[in-house]
Amino acid sequence: MNRILEVNTLTIHHSSSNLRLVHPLSFTIKSGEVLALVGASGSGKSLVAQALFHILPTNLSWEGDIRLKGNLVHNKNVQNYRGKSMAYIPQSVDALDPFLKIGKQLKQLTPTHTGKKEIIEGLKRLGLTKSILTKYPFELSGGQARRILILMALVSEADLIVADEPTPGIGEQATEDFRKLLLAKKDSGKAVLLITHDLDLASDVATKIAVMKDGKMVDIFPSSWLQKDALDRNNLHPYTLELWNSLPRNLNTQEWFHATRS
Ligand SMILES: Nc1ncnc2c1ncn2[C@@H]1O[C@H](COP(=O)(O)OP(=O)(O)OP(=O)(O)O)[C@@H](O)[C@H]1O
Ligand code: NI
Q: How many angstroms is it from 80 CA to the middle of ligand 2?
């Protein structure tokens, strides 16, 4: 399988003090893979996504090696990748251009005819109507804006999609539609980095799961390990086990937790 994204010893620190917010971490996402990045609030997930696109807050710096299809992504060439071969669904809906109608913003991403068809279909699948295309971002609700951001990433031709908490506030139906669209991207050989608090979504769509805690990637493992009878669970970090045991569907499997720790 082709490697789409390779991240090698990425660290993120305060520019002024060298104090680390993200400790050295490395991972790879291949064509057709979804890597779910999960972990506590404040553990550094969004910073990792921002570093990939060179859009960290100015008081922070990063070091390491980021490659897209083997090519080093650096300061001077990142514009050639952003929004083209790497699409980003940011955690904040402020990312929409406030002065440009939604239709125009979507059109910029997909100038081709097929793109237009995909936009119309995508709108429908995400529970939006065509009328939204003539609106400005300020006329949308938070959930609608988030769905537009999802659509933007999904209609783009990007090889890599980075989605930072795309589902809060969009409702159950749109979350389900998003899940299906993600699986379609996966099947068509794209690579996805999905940052989420939704562990059910993560275990459902991801091929690999990475867990962050206090700026460290404490685990990265194939999602098949989460199958109830998979022995490899023994290899997971206690924090990962804690996360999974706190899922409502696992609350009755505490025996398993004790069995794996003894
Ligand atoms: N510009 C900044 N300057 C200093 N610290 C920052 C800055 N931006 C983020 N941080 C800190 O870095 C840590 C990681 O933040 P980040 O946004 O990556 O967390 P996260 O895992 O995405 O959390 P959440 O799940 O809540 O979105 C947090 O402790 C946050 O306070
Ligand atoms: Ni975040």
A: 25
CA of 188 to the centre of ligand 1 (A): 32
Rounded-to-integer distance, Cα 204 and Cα 225, Å: 12
Ligand nearest to the CA of 164: 2
Q: What angle do CA 133, 139, 141 make, to 5 degrees?
A: 100
pTM here is 0.89
Q: Is 89 helix (H, G, I), strand (E, B) or coil?
A: strand
Ligand nearest to the CA of 42: 1
- Of residues 205, 177, 203, the one with CA closest to residue 191: 205
Q: What is the pLDDT of residues 41-52, one digit of tens each?
A: 999 999 999 999
Task: State which CATH number among 3.50.50.60, 3.40.50.300, 3.40.50.720, 2.40.340.10 fits the domain covering 3-226.
Answer: 3.40.50.300
Tens digits of per-residue pLDDT, 161-202? 999 998 887 888 888 888 888 898 999 999 999 999 888 889
ipTM of the complex: 0.99
